[in-house]
Amino acid sequence: MKSQRKMKAAVFCLGWIVAILWLGFPAVAADKENCLMCHKYPFVGRIDENGKRHNYQVDEASYNHSVHRSVACRDCHTYITKIPHDPVTEEVNCANVCHTKPPFAQEKFSHQKIIDIYNDSAHGIKPDDSPEAKKAKPYCKFCHLNPLYTRVSEKVIAFDETLRRCLNCHQAKGVTQAYIHMTHRLRKKTTRSPQEVVQLCAKCHQDVELMQKLKVSEEGLTAVATYNHTLHGKSVALGSQETADCISCHASFAIHDIYRKDNPKATVYKDNLMQTCLQCHTETNSWFVQIAVHPRTKREENPLIYMAGIGLRFALYGSVCSLVGLMLLETYGRRKDGIKFLLRRGTSWRGKSKRPPRK
Questions:
Q1: CA-to-CA distance for 259 and 215, rounded, in angstroms?
Q2: Buried b / exposed e across 310-340, counting CB within 10 Å, b at 16+?
Q3: 135-147 pLDDT tens trace
């Protein structure tokens, strides 16, 4: 009898173990070829022919929570044909078709649509570009750093409540991943803050020497400096999260469609300015859009702003100097009345007045 009970208990425990292993959380299967066996170690890398050191370490925890966590390594590194592999000599092509299918999609995922928009933009490499221009133009990895999934605050979106309704019909694995991926982009055009966007764009656009090599216009050479002097730039510098940054004006919600201002497709083209400004300024009119967003203060280019700047400087320095003069005059008068500068417990002690007595 006891042996039967022991047998039943053993079978029961074994059944629970099998159920837990069968129904438990699935392991992340993106690293099927166990690339992290080597690449998980810090400082793994090599020194190239030019003496530059390359670090190939991949942080496993960050990778498993990044936007590419379900993408197999060789979906991007297609040039690797054997493991261990030879030294890497090719860059990753972000236009590759992944083996991953997004939830609710019938075809494999690709960034090709975004890359087509990028190639048509001012940043895209054109056939007639000089070698310097081709080298200087930013590619995908210059801006994108494989960000982690981030949830929007539940004060903005009832995250758990909405997701529970989705799970009434859809499987948790696919819909949860899709929901998290979408909700962290719902509030603004970019996941970066305005300060990060301005800093990223300024890496190239405030490099005057580089911009001159790319034959950028005179207005473009001073774009960062003039933006920083405007109300938008000063608000962003003070930490505002609502003020317009570079992307706010120069791109639509496609983000990558940044064109020269003389291109009719540009958001800053003269016929599109009204719609662009209406994103923030609901009282926009034909006069409003004529305000210079990147005002230059050179006399020959903008005499009105130049003279206004001189007038405001006179007003500022005149006010400060007048206040200082008034303070000195008041101090002199008080000294003649016998007021001393010595303060004791917050009290000034009166001395003997130097003024002649009144008759």
A1: 15
A2: eeeeeeeeeeeeeeeeeeeeeeeeeeeeeee
A3: 888 888 888 877 6
What six digits make up the tokens of 100?
């991953």
For 55, the enclosing helix (H) or strand (E) is strand 53-55
Crossing angle for the helix pair 159-166 and 172-183, to the nearest 10 degrees: 140
pLDDT at 6: 56
H or E element in which residue 205 lies: helix 194-205
Amino acid at 120: D
Q: What is the mean pLDDT of residues 38-55?
A: 85
CA 166 to chain centre: 30
Distances in Å between the Cα of 271 and the Cα atoms of 121, 192, 266, 286 are 18, 28, 9, 10
Residue 23 — pLDDT band, cuts 50, 70, 90?
very low
Q: How far is CA 275 from CA 121, 148, 194, 247, in A?
A: 19, 32, 20, 15
Predicted structure pTM score:
0.67
Report the distance separating Cα 175 and Cα 163, nearest Å: 8
Burial of 131 (0-12, 13-18, 19+ CB in 10 A): exposed
